Amino acid sequence: MGLIFRDYKIQSRDVDWGCNVDLNANLSIEQIQLGAILRIADAVEKMAESQDEFKNRYEEEKALRQKLAGTVIALRGVITKLKKGLK
Q1: Interatomic CA distance for residues 86 and 44, integer angstroms
Q2: CB neighbours of 34 closer than 8 A, spacing ≥ 6?
Q3: How far is residue 75's CA from residue 73's CA, in Å, rounded to a whole number?
Q4: Cβ-based neighbours of 27, under 8 Å, separated by 6 or more
Q5: pTM above 0.70?
Q6: 21 and 33 Cβ atoms separated by less than 8 Å
Q7: pLDDT tens across 28-55, in order?
C-alpha cells in the first residue's frame, strides 16, 4: 500500500479536534495548548479577511479623494474667473 500526502493546513480545518474524557477528568496541558492554537488560527483568518475589506475600502476612498481634489481645483479656477469678471 502506498503513501499519500496529507496537507496539514487542510487536514486541520477538516477535522473537529477534541477528545472524549470522563466527566471528572481534566484535559492535559498539550490539549489545552492545541485548543488555544486553534482559536488563535481562527482569529488570524478572520483578521486577514477584515484586512482585505479595509484595503479595498481604502482604495475606493483614495480614488474618491483624488476625484474630489480635481473638482476643488476646477471650482477654484471658476472662482478666480468670476472675481476677474467683477473687476
Answers
A1: 62
A2: 17
A3: 5
A4: 19, 21, 35
A5: no
A6: no
A7: 888 888 888 988 988 998 888 888 888 9
